[in-house]
Amino acid sequence: MSLAIDFKRIIRAGFINFMRNPVVSLVSVLIMTVTLFIMSSLILLNALLSFSLAQVSERVDINVYFYPDATELDTFSLRDDLQLLPEVAAVDYISREDAIESFRERHADDYLTLQALDELNDNPLGASLNIQADETEQYASIVQYLETSSARLSIEKINYNQNKGIIDRLNDIMSTVQRLGLIVTLFFVLISILITFNTIRLAIYGAREEIAVMRLVGADNKYIRGPFMVEGILYGVSATVLTVIALIPITLWFSNFAETFFGGIDIFAYYITNLPQIIVILLVSGMLLGIISSFFSTRRYLRK
Amino acid sequence: MKVRYNNMYNMIYFDNVSKAYPGDELALQDVSLSVESGEFVSVVGHSGAGKTTLIRLILAEVAPTNGQVFFESQDVQEMKSTDVSALRRRIGTVFQDFKLLTGKTVYENIAFAMEVAGRSDEEIDSDVPHVLNLVNMTDKRNRFPRELSGGEKQRLAIARAIVNQPDVVIADEPTGNLDPEATYEIIQILEKINDLGTTVILTTHSQGVVDSLKKRVVRLEDGRIISDTKEK
After folding, report:
1. What is the CATH number of domain A60-162?
2. Which of A23, A245, B47, B225 is deepest in the core (most CB within 10 A)?
3. Is there a contact between A252 and A44 (Cβ–Cβ < 8 Å)?
4. Which of B85, B100, B103 has the CB atom closest to A218's CB atom?
5. Cβ atoms < 10 Å from Cβ of A67
6. A133 phi and psi, to 5 degrees?
7. Which helix (H) or strand (E) element contains residue A226?
């Protein structure tokens, strides 16, 4: 008999079983929904974490302060050299005029300081460069580059050493958070997979007499196992639909809170933008979980 | 329905078979028995005499402790899993506890047996109504087994057993749970199946059923054959 007919019959039987056992199907779908919900929450949490860590990293920078008598030529050539370094993400040049301007703005209410500044005939502030690296680990090598560069004689101060402690600590925190995140993710995913697997195993255990009868009638393994695997796929698809729908109001509600707490990320917008990928991940995970659980749960009843 | 003529040959053969279940006494002892094609054999004995073990050995559900069981000269114990499935498709089975698929309707129970035998949709569409008519269940085709009486369940089991035109129908205490009227109906149907050329093996503990049949009777007691009317 053709495979297409076998396939059609197995799919039809799976659909019929799914519809005719509403309680078993509902319980299995709900349990799998919890699993997929945990998985998608972890995807979103990971996005939040990455985003906030990226934000914190962006706030880390180093400033190179030049002597007031350093020439513009020196500062510009150092800026251009820095921009060519692969680890440098951005270099901002702050001229002496900009520096005094922002100093005056910061001390607009400090009359004494401004008066003292006015009494100086010259601008006491030097130009500076604000440097941002791609990764926080790269600052050390940038500083090393600065200290050996030809412009080092014009440099009054590099504030790396002041920031170094913070940068190192941040590096530690980020790697710990990422490692912990991975462990927690794997733990939750493993637990929820085991619960789903067990639920499907129980559902198939409930059908063991039917399986015995099917074998007595002479059904091949594919006719016995196939419909259960189709049911597993249906659990996965239904659970994906439920999870995706449930996440819409949840991310919307969570969005406001996350925006203030994690700084700037709109989790709802992130969810909607990445919806196609999230659906694919959940669908594949759910269906695989259903198929594999059904496959292994039926195995013990199919021995000769 | 396929009709077979009188070309009899050894279909099932027990060669000095013994069967012991773990922790139990011997369920069967040194049983040698042959069933020819087209025969109607009743196996009679009290509960625990070994009737059901005899059936389970033919279906390769259990393995003999000693001896061999042959189906058309093939040792059933030597068969691979796929061959066992094929063997079971050649044997229609009817049990005291019906063994129906409770999640499927009357029609689907019969259709399932045809599907697993690789029959086409057209054959299923034509043969299922035919056997339903044969066992007088046409009006119950959309019912689930839980909605049927004992006699109806057994008629459905018979319909499922014969729909693939098996070489043998094995009925293990099919009337054990039925009232006399339903018992009579079932025996009538089994006789009809045999008349059409199918080998029938019936196990029962009811002397009345055996007497009404007037066919070959194998009597089992404590796992041994104590009489076989064929040998007379």
Report:
1. 3.30.70.3040
2. B225
3. no
4. B85
5. 14
6. -100, 165
7. helix A221-258
Show the tokens assigned to B117. Answer: 């035998």
Instruction: Specify whether the CB–CB gap between B69 and B57 falls below 8 A.
Output: yes
By CB atoms closer than 10 A (0-12, 13-18, 19+), residue A115 is exposed
Q: Which of A1, A210, A221 sits opposite B101 (nearest CB)?
A: A210
Please say whether the beta carbons of A224 and A263 come within 8 A. Answer: no
The distance of Cα B210 from the centroid of its chain, to the nearest Å, equals 16
Domain layout of chain A by residue ranges: 3-56+171-299, 60-162
This prediction has a pTM of: 0.72
The pLDDT value given to residue B3:
38
Residue B66 in tokens: 């000693």
What would the pLDDT profile of A197-212 be if each residue is shown by its tens digit?
A: 998 899 889 889 999 9
Is B84 close to A304, i.e. CB distance below 8 A? Answer: yes
| Chain A residues touching residue B145 (CB < 8 angstroms) | none
What is the Cα–Cα distance from B195 to A171, expressed in whole angstroms?
A: 88
User: With contacts defined as CB-CB under 8 Å, which chain B residues touch A219?
Assistant: 85, 112, 116
Helix, strand, or coil (residue A60): coil
Q: Note whether B160 and A217 are within 8 A (CB).
A: yes
Neighbours of A110 (CB within 10 A): 12
pLDDT score recorded for residue A130: 87
How do residues A255-272 score in pLDDT, each as one tens digit?
877 666 666 678 888 899
Q: Which residues of B touch A3 (CB under 8 A)?
A: none
Find residue B75's DSSP bridge partners: B70
Angle at B63 between CA B59 and CA B66, to 5 degrees: 125
Best of A213, A221, A302 to disrupt the B interface (most B CBs within 10 Å) is: A213
The reported pLDDT for the residue numbered B55 is 93
Residues contacting residue B218 through CB under 8 Å, at least 6 positions apart: B33, B41, B42, B43, B44, B225, B227, B228, B229, B230
Contact (CB, 8 A) for B159 and B131: yes
Report pLDDT for B6.
Answer: 45
Nearest CA in chain A to B79: A304
Domain at B9-90+167-232, CATH homologous superfamily: P-loop containing nucleotide triphosphate hydrolases (3.40.50.300)
| Residue numbers in chain A where pLDDT is lower than 70 | 1, 56-59, 161-164, 167, 258-264, 303-304
Report the alpha-carbon distance of residue A155 to residue A146 in Å, rounded.
9
Nearest to B116 among A20, A220, A304 (CB): A220
Q: Which helix (H) or strand (E) holds A287?
A: helix A275-299
Domain residue limits, chain B: 9-90+167-232, 100-165
- Whole-angstrom Cα distance, residue A142 to residue A130? 12
CB atoms within 10 A of CB A180: 10
